[in-house]
Amino acid sequence: MRLPMAHGGRQSMDGLVGDLIPSAVQAAWGLSADDTASPLNGGGNRSVRVGDVVFKPADDIVEATWCQESLSQLVLDGFRIADPVRSLHGRWVESGWTASRWIEGVAGPDGHWGQLLETSARFHQILSRVEPPPFLGQRTHRWAVVDRAAWREVRLEWLPATISRARILYELWEPLDLPAQVIHGDLSGNVLFGEGLMPAVIDFSPYWRPAAFADAVILMDGMLWFGGDAIVSLIPRTSTFSQLLVRAALFRLGALNERARTVDPACLDELPTFDRAIGWLTENMR
Questions:
Q1: What is the rounded distance in angstroms from the CA atom of residue 248 to the CA atom of residue 251?
Q2: Domains located in the chain, CATH noted
Q3: CB within 8 A of 154, min separation 6: which ones?
Q4: CB atoms within 10 A of CB 129
Q5: d(Cα 94, Cα 107) in Å, to the nearest integer?
Q6: N or C: which end of the chain has fewer CB atoms below 10 A?
Q7: Transferase among the record's keywords (predicted)?
């Protein structure tokens, strides 16, 4: 699944197991504070493995509960998921944490782009039957805000360092009329691969967008962070998909903008990676 960065299992004075997870949370799932807890790279570097259970903090209890419940009801076809686990009290969230079964595989799309897109198609075919939850239109966290900005539903406070690139993308932006559904908006690093194993989808990030937008985000991530002809060759050459790519670029640029504006200004060092993708879009859409 995700590689452990360190190990710990000793209960500290503040009720944490190895300073990683509250002992009361482990107890809610029937685990002992003496069980070893290991941090994982996934889940925003906040996930913790204890035995065959992976714990992850829930930033929004309503959203986390809905995600766990929805995943538990999926009929899988050609992919795996990390099965959600209820607590001993029958809840999906306890003290701000969720739990899922550990699942084998390695995250990382490089070398798996075709398989990743195929998994996206299978996953979203099944998600197309899921009704949109009310909270999707009410979220105010930065990922939700930059998603709306990419679709021109809200205005973002662009920084001087990012606004010139945003303007180029908005000049390419045209309206789209596509059906929306529940999608996983961050699949690139959240599908696990392994020899002899079906791909596994983890860390569900729900949005209400066209299914193909999830693929556009995958391919934009490839252009931004990996590059190469292998990515470009997978891009559908249609005006509709080009518009989805523009929105995907704005989504990722907006996320970088908000991270720099509110958390980590040093992340603006990543801006040059956008120039290659923006250049490709400009050249291929005019």
A1: 5
A2: 16-103 (3.30.200), 113-285 (3.90.1200.10)
A3: 145, 148
A4: 11
A5: 27
A6: C
A7: yes
